[in-house]
Design brief:
Length: 211
């Protein structure tokens, strides 16, 4: 009997040890999986956030590369819609004129180099047939590099008018005062509305001025 009890006790202890081992394995496995899942869920959002930041940064760089740069050009003279236009960088005169509605019927195309590239803040003046070429500052459309600097009466300051024969400081101030009160001049003939400038004075000034 004693031997049977010892055998029974031995088997019972073995079962308890085995059960404890199984429980330990189950608990250990659970904590291992839980820890791994928690670590993965913590790392993945950080990686995903970093990836999103990289994609946003790359997108901004690509948009800057793809976005065409624009320049500002003033178009005056014998065009259908004179004014200031935003055009793509490295555009040529022909493209700018198309933006301005095209040439007017009386435009003298022989004096214009339509293939010339334009520059930022450049003014393009299209002469009418029979008119002498007038090349405003920063403009050389006809190839005449010896032309005298032309003053734009819509942007000129008192100092700019110093280069104009026939307009002194007082008359220059009158031109600017008229422009500030009534808006920009649409044609050179509008200068006759300024006190002290008549038709005769205008005929002497027209080769030195532009709008």
């Amino acid at each position: 009997m004693i031997e049977m009890e010892e055998v029974y006790q031995y088997v019972r202890n073995k079962k308890i040890g085995l059960l404890v081992s199984i429980v330990a394995l189950v608990v250990g496995g659970y904590f291992f999986l839980f820890h791994k899942t928690t670590l993965t869920s913590t790392v993945e959002p950080k990686q995903e956030l970093a990836t999103q930041k990289d994609e946003i940064k790359k997108s901004k760089i690509d948009s800057k590369i793809k976005e065409p740069q624009t320049i500002v050009v003033d178009v005056q003279g014998a065009v259908k819609k004179s004014g200031v236009y935003h055009v793509k960088d490295k555009a040529i005169v022909q493209e700018v004129i198309q933006t301005a509605g095209g040439f007017a019927a009386n435009a003298d195309l022989r004096q214009i180099n339509q293939a010339k590239r334009v520059a930022d803040q450049m003014q393009i003046y299209i002469p009418v047939k029979g008119e002498k070429t007038r090349a405003p500052a920063n403009t050389n459309l006809s190839g005449d590099t010896q032309g005298k600097k032309i003053v734009n009466i819509n942007t000129a300051t008192v100092d700019d008018f110093k280069n104009v024969t026939g307009i002194g400081p007082k008359k220059a101030q009158k031109v600017i005062a008229y422009r500030e009160e009534h808006g920009q001049f649409k044609t050179l003939h509008d200068l006759t509305n300024v006190s002290g400038i008549g038709e005769k004075s205008l005929s002497k000034l027209k080769d030195q001025l532009t709008v």
